[in-house]
Design a protein that fits this description.
Two copies of one chain form a homodimer.
Chain A (H helix, E strand, L loop, with lengths): L4 H14 L5 H7 L4 H7 L3 H23 L6 H12 L3 H13 L7 H19 L9 H20 L8 H13 L6
Helix pairs in contact in A: 1-2, 1-6, 4-5, 4-7, 5-9, 6-8, 7-8, 8-9
The first copy, chain A, binds a DNA duplex (30 and 30 nucleotides) through α3.
DNA sequence: CCCATATGAGACACGAACGTCCCACTCCGC
DNA sequence: GCGGAGTGGGACGTTCGTGTCTCATATGGG
């Protein structure tokens, strides 16, 4: 008994990553519990998505912390970040898509905090001459999210090998963001 | 009278780009027509999305044609493609997202045809030594779609100036795909 | 062993969106 | 001016997901 809330969230994340329109019933069955029990722990779909948001924010924040973005070259920091964020990629891309559906009323303030950290990282990289200055930090941040989502999707559909996930993202994003010599 | 089917599709695309969950009623009002009339021209939501798919495929295909990808350097071809695809960016990113919701049963064959063209373009660029060979054509194709979507979204939320749309995408994607000298 | 707590299954009402239909109105061609 | 086609508004039934509730069952601690 005594349901493992964390495990339910994990399976919900795994399911919603694949099928973002999954029913509460499907979420419950995927977690191996009854729909009633699911409702007992999460007031409704909004509450469930909210809990997933908190989870995703925590994971992303942890990845940011563990990446120690400011240690050494910015390029290496970014590589560590991508590697650290890989396990959460599916969940994060689901949450990004979910957020886009909102009418911008009440967005979880956690996202703005994370956006600010990522954006600030790119800006520092620019100031240190490691990143191109003609691509704005805000755009690099959004592009990072987009590439994470695209790559997670490509892995899911078999277009990209799972083991290549970090490499594909880092090489594509970094190649563009890195100051190249002929510029 | 005699409803302009094309115009209805345009306004539906514009609305669904911003709010992909918009109701048939909202779509109708956005087009300035009644819900009944909308249903007379499109059997249902599926038919409407299907018509939008055809429209998006036509536009993307036209962009591919007009870009003349094989004329001159691959880089220039890509620049022309991005510029040509800009007006359709919102619609295309909506359709890509929409397609991901499908359980992969019956996808419009148009997409595979377009995927093949884009993918082949990247492959030729690789063979001619203009693109890196460690990033697969399939991934470059998906990344292109993802960046188009991210940039369209960034423009909509004001994070990226509309006039910078082609530049931001091309520079980021190309920088990564382009063989850089220090490699 | 017994009881409290949590669960699963199902029933129920509610709301949203859909798809269909009808009716009055308007606009156009004849 | 007249008739018909096209349109808008609204009503209706249906479906689907949601949220709440009840009840029987199982599990685990005292």
């Amino acid at each position: 008994m005594t349901l493992d809330r964390e495990q339910v969230l994990r399976s919900a994340a795994a399911l919603l990553t694949r099928k973002s329109t999954a029913t509460m019933d499907e979420v419950a069955r995927a977690a191996g519990i009854g729909r009633a029990t699911l409702h007992r722990h999460f007031a409704g779909r909004d509450a469930l998505v909210g809990a997933l948001e908190d989870l995703g924010i925590r994971e992303f924040e942890a990845a940011l912390d563990s990446a120690a973005l400011d240690d050494g070259a910015a390029e290496e920091g970014l590589r560590r970040l991508i590697a650290a964020v890989e396990p959460s990629a599916g969940l994060l891309s689901f949450l990004v898509t979910e957020n886009q559906l909102f009418e911008g009323d009440d967005v979880n303030e956690g996202w703005s905090r994370l956006d600010a950290r990522v954006s600030a990282f790119f800006r520092r990289g620019q100031e240190r001459g490691e990143f191109r200055i003609d691509l704005t930090p805000a755009w690099l941040t959004e592009a990072l999210y987009g590439l994470i989502g695209s790559c997670a999707w490509s892995v899911q559909t078999g277009r990209v090998a799972a083991q290549d996930f970090p490499y594909m993202i880092v090489e594509l994003l970094l190649g563009g963001a890195r100051r190249s010599v002929e510029k």
